[in-house]
Amino acid sequence: MAKRVHVVAAVIRGRDQRVLIAKRPDHVHMGGLWEFPGGKVEQGEAPLEALKRELKEEVGLAVVSAQPLIQITHDYPDKQVYLDVWEVIEFTGVARGVEGQQIEWVHAADLAAYEFPAANQPIVTSTLLPSTCLITGHANAADVYLSAIEAALDRGHRLFILRPSCPDIDLVTVISALKNMAHFDAAQWQWHIDWGTAAPANFITLVSEHKNFGVHFSARKLEHNLEPFQDSLLSASCHDQSELAAAQQQGMDFVLLSPVSATKHYSNAELLGWVGFSALVKRINIPVFALGGVTLDDVHNARLAGGQGVACVRAWWPS
Ligand SMILES: Nc1nc2c([nH]c(=O)n2[C@@H]2O[C@H](COP(=O)(O)OP(=O)(O)OP(=O)(O)O)[C@@H](O)[C@H]2O)c(=O)[nH]1
């Protein structure tokens, strides 16, 4: 069997947050499609060195610093690739198509309009997602619940999993209150409503009426027919390899994987640690947030372990 090719690729953001993409020449593998700049890792070369070399050779940029973003194992009919995608944090130079290829700086939200090789869909999702995912906790009153979210939006957080769990608030009220908040649009498509025990009976209809809200599933819910949600952005909570495989198979856009470390909630569960987290993340091709006993300061640890970032409740929710 042919050897899997180790490829490094980069998500490079310009000052205005647009992302650099390049068009593959017609005559090469996946020719004519757009790509994140990069190329094959040479024998004996460290991935970051390969990334620096490829970006210099292809788009004339010098990488100062970069961190892992997502890794994808994909089998094309004629080639097996391991795409090792990095997020460039700092670079110098002005991008140009050194090999004569077309390049473009594109807003992350517009990447979906470009045709990429089949392996790239999770990279596009990963580019859209921030590195923190905030899950709402319990509140005794609606105004406490909503003002905690509003304060987090003001602090720059953009991805939320909503578990409206206070007695005097229903989902319709939450949705309309969120829509009136400053920065609501910045987090559009990044609001995920938990289809949990507290969800109302008309949950499916409700979600279909609010297209800019995604749905979050418990692992158990992944056994259901998720057809009604196919137009929504989807996420799930997973704890082991079989749940992750089900999440990928059901088309989840991202997942939360827990428990990484001990919490009050998870004190008896088997903890993954960063090593266990990393081993599981390697087996799937969708962005994974580390959950359970992690704080907002653990983003770098999560990235080094192959994750998208961290998901938290207690680390941000007012107690
Ligand atoms: N650079 C890059 N390659 C990708 C992406 N997505 C994807 O499937 N690939 C695949 O990964 C492989 C990368 O090989 P390459 O041809 O770009 O590598 P290279 O620059 O070292 O080329 P060469 O040594 O053949 O000249 C190709 O099979 C390509 O189809 C992507 O976003 N960026």
Automatic annotation (TrEMBL):
Its EC number is 3.6.1.55. The keyword Metal-binding applies. It catalyses: 8-oxo-GTP + H2O = 8-oxo-GMP + diphosphate + H(+); 8-oxo-dGTP + H2O = 8-oxo-dGMP + diphosphate + H(+). Keywords: DNA damage, DNA repair, DNA replication, Hydrolase, Magnesium, Metal-binding, Mutator protein. The keyword DNA repair applies. Pfam families: NUDIX_4 (PF14815), TMP-TENI (PF02581). Its cofactor is Mg(2+). Residues 2-130 form the Nudix hydrolase domain. One of its GO terms (molecular function) is hydrolase activity. It is an enzyme of class 3 (hydrolase). InterPro entries: Aldolase_TIM, Mutator_MutT, MutT-like, MutY_C, Nudix_hydrolase, NUDIX_hydrolase-like_dom_sf, NUDIX_hydrolase_CS, NUDIX_hydrolase_dom. PROSITE patterns: NUDIX, NUDIX_BOX. CDD domains: NUDIX_MutT_NudA_like, TMP_TenI. PANTHER family: 8-OXO-DGTP DIPHOSPHATASE, NUDIX HYDROLASE FAMILY PROTEIN. NCBIfam families: mutt, PRK08999.1. Belongs to the Nudix hydrolase family. This is 8-oxo-dGTP diphosphatase.
